[in-house]
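$ run holo --ligand "zinc ion" --emit tokens
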Amino acid sequence: MSFLIPCPNCGKRSVYEFRFGSEYKKRPSPNQPQEAWTEYSYMKRNEAGLQKEWWFHRAGCRQWFLAVRDTVTNEVHETLFPRDESPRSNTPSPQPSPSRDAPA
Ligand SMILES: [Zn+2]
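-- output --
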């Protein structure tokens, strides 16, 4: 199934230019018990509906970003860089990116 993802740096592009990372989850602090790290590393919510996810624009700007995607319809509602306070959706104007962070 093909759909468009609005890269926060490049604008709307085909999903085939991207690589799915995983569901977004808050990383536990280093002193958390092993159960917290096991949950973080191996457990997935697999939402049917809106889900925040990591995506990588492998055939474009080669940056990781977050996307809020409806997993039922594949409609992407919002994309943003992890440290970006202003999400961009449906705005193809290129912006300098503040981050090259990859998911853990
Ligand atoms: Zn891009």
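-- notes --
The first helix runs from residue 34 to 42.
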